[in-house]
Amino acid sequence: MNIAANPVVEADQTIYLKDYQKPAFLVDSINLDIQVYADHTIVNAILEMQRQTEGDLVLLGRDLELKSIHLNSQQLTENDYQLDAEQLVIQNAPDRARIETQVVIHPESNTMLEGLYQAGDLFVTQNEPEGFRKITFYPDRPDVLSVFTTRVEADKKYPVLLANGNLIEKGEVDAQRHYAIWQDPTKKPSYLFACVVGDLAVLKDSYVTSEGRNVALEIYAVEKDIPKCHIAMETLKHSMRWDEEHYGLPYDLDNYMIVAVSQFNMGAMENKGLNIFNTSCVLADEEYTTDAAIMRVQSVIAHEYFHNWTGNRITCRDWFQLCLKEGLTVFRDQSFSEDLQSAAVQRIDDVAVLKAHQFPEDSGPLSHPPRPDHFVEINNFYTATVYEKGAEINRMMSTLLGKEKFRAGTDEYFRRHDGQAVTVEDWVAALTAGSGVDLSAFLTWYNQPGTPKLQAHGEYEASTQTYRLSFKQSLKAHPKYPDLKAVPIPVALALFNAETGEQYTLQSEALFENGVKDGVYLFDQDEATIEFSGINAKPVVSLLRNFSAPVNLEFDASDAELAFLMQYETNGFNQWQATQTLLERILLNGHAVESYLQAMKNTVPALVNQDPLLASRIFDVPTEGYLGSRIDQHYSPVDIQEKREALLNTLARELGAFCKETYLSLDPDLQKEFSQAMGVRALKNIMLSLMARQGDTEAFDLAHQQYQNTGNMSERLGALRVLVWNDAPQAESCLQDFYDRFKDEALSLDQWFTVQASHPNATAETIHTLTQHPDYDLGTPNRIRSVSGGLNMNPVNTWSFGVQHYIHLAKYLDEKNPILGSRLLQVLSRWYTLDEPQRSQVQVALETLKPLVKSKNVVETLNSMLNV
Ligand code: TRP
Ligand code: ZN
């Protein structure tokens, strides 16, 4: 009957926020029956629908083979409805409509990892944002909430049959097959539906909520990975407690299940009561995964759990509101992680991600507001802007309100909107009502693209002991958003006595009383000046402490003042920021390196002992990729690489003895806390890499010993990197050893691919060899990314032979997995900043791709990229 291919982008398929209309019909309940067979799956659905406004009854469906459809028990024929590649429409439907459909789908050949798909020996779903329409005909939009009952039937060789909610029945069909029936009592949109069929082992635990509910906790994974699930389980319980304590939000069902899948497009998915996770975001074990990966597991576990309230209980009215749930949930998981390790270091890591991904995105052809007002393919909008900038907007409002008022605001949000599908306006209105502080000006942040530039200028007047600080904000013009407005910018700041290093107690009428210890000034005009009195000498000023707003700060502090902040700033984040600003000036603007080196020598020895984790970040040197993103024209990756290498060599030479001494004196096993041990490991690896720059054979020997004598992946991989990237004589044998040890451990093997793909002198040949390796697999996004992501760690390589790599992948994935294809192509989005002849070469390559791709995902991305 009707099998529609992946639709081709024709004419203008843009969808606009302003065109939002309520659906004519809602669904009171849905009964699903999913029968999985080796070569097809049958899906029977019964929808109890009810009219809410006038209009047609619209069921969305894609790639579905329709076998039969009944309306109120009457079989419909092709004359009774209109069916195209996207939807089935019934005109003049009665106000109460019971729709019964039978369709056939093919999870076994679904490579898009969307809808129901087979991954190895496992059948799983991914329905956000629009996957459910690939399972059955349904009003697949987030403002239709329904009660789901699901029967899952499969061969007994798949003992695990899961769906959302409570298991209400389980039994045999015949000798060969069995079934399970699940009912989810909570009304939910279809994007939160999940089911799983497979042969998995399970780790069980339980948790008692603040309301006394006993919740069964289960993590499903392949048998050999179960020992790697304990950290995730502990983190889950910790998240549950944290949400009760910080937001007053207890869990609402009797069970919470997590399933680990090795083929998954993103990090994880918050399906109600049945999260599905990329293995990379659930498996955590010192022997097989790095410290950074363990931190990521903890933040993603918390993220998906927190979605239960911010996303599931209160969901989005439409997909333009995606940042309502994602921005808030990222802000919540970042706050959770700040409690797990040092808050300053967590903030450093989060801001580093923001600046490395969101800032470049927002300054290029893919720039869009956190809440876009149009799109072609919603999957292209799961972006750093929606997630990370969205989180920053919430952080700004929370900074302004302070803990208590922010909590009053969120309480009001949950009181007003539980069980609803709402908008960003509803969120800001509830925060305003609950806190008593008008936050409506923050809506501008949601609606405009671009990173504001914040210019600050300070003047000291000795005669009156007054310090004046003037601010100016501006945004780069954007063709699609002509009237850009000033945004409210909370500026957390501190003034230091330049002689003593002490902080002034701030007196200024402009400062906001908010219960946080930093002074915060809310700058919400185009220009303004504030005054501080009682300042007895020209102060050193630290602005945007803790990165209080996602802006590009241009402050005319001297290099000496930044060096001062590297030493005396008590806010760990701004201490780090001072080093980064100084390094940017050195690497991009040709400033002298001396103040930086001197400040490092003054600061680092004490810090290494006091706070090795923070010390490990103070050694950060902005990556070549980040530095490149700061350049808008005539960008030469080779030039940036040379300058950065020269700086690292200078640092290594100047601190040579210190590095060795520090390396030998540090022992992670002496640390009590995981986060401190992680800091020591990170610091030791940095010391080792600086030592190895000198071509020091002793450094290679130390790296070799570290490689061999550890059972910890961060130590082993840190050492392997140093050996491989410096072409040490031990490199080959260690790579072989690593492969032999971990060839059956996918996540560890990913690291083996990455360490080679990210070799600074990797060539097209290196990448070719890796992608021809028997363990390379185009069906596993993690494995693709292990090579593509590694390659992209060296922009010189990305912009030379890498261009063809990304273009080939985009072309191949256009059909097989367009979500991933579109994402990988975005690596090239800043092509237009390159110096000639590279700029034209990449342009030609992108133009050549144009006629070869069809998916909305890749076409929309490519069109935007070429439209600069
Ligand atoms: N809602 C998920 C999260 O942020 C995101 C997600 C998971 C997703 N899988 C996806 C988005 C696939 C698009 C496609 O937690
Ligand atoms: Zn999320």
From TrEMBL:
Transmembrane segments: none annotated. Residues 559-866 form the Peptidase M1 alanyl aminopeptidase C-terminal domain. This is Aminopeptidase N. Residues 232-444 form the Peptidase M1 membrane alanine aminopeptidase domain. Residues 450-555 form the Peptidase M1 alanyl aminopeptidase Ig-like fold domain. Residues 32-192 form the Aminopeptidase N-like N-terminal domain. Its EC number is 3.4.11.2. It catalyses: Release of an N-terminal amino acid, Xaa-|-Yaa- from a peptide, amide or arylamide. Xaa is preferably Ala, but may be most amino acids including Pro (slow action). When a terminal hydrophobic residue is followed by a prolyl residue, the two may be released as an intact Xaa-Pro dipeptide. InterPro entries: Aminopeptidase_N-like_N (IPR045357), Aminopeptidase_N-like_N_sf (IPR042097), PepN_Ig-like_sf (IPR038438), Peptidase_M1 (IPR001930), Peptidase_M1_dom (IPR014782), Peptidase_M1_pepN (IPR012779), Peptidase_M1_pepN_C (IPR024601), Peptidase_M1_pepN_C_sf (IPR037144). It comes from the Bacteria. It holds the Pfam family DUF3458. The keyword Protease applies. Belongs to the peptidase M1 family. GO terms for molecular function: alanyl aminopeptidase activity; metallopeptidase activity; zinc ion binding. GO terms for biological process: proteolysis. Keywords: Aminopeptidase, Hydrolase, Metal-binding, Metalloprotease, Protease, Zinc. Its cofactor is Zn(2+).
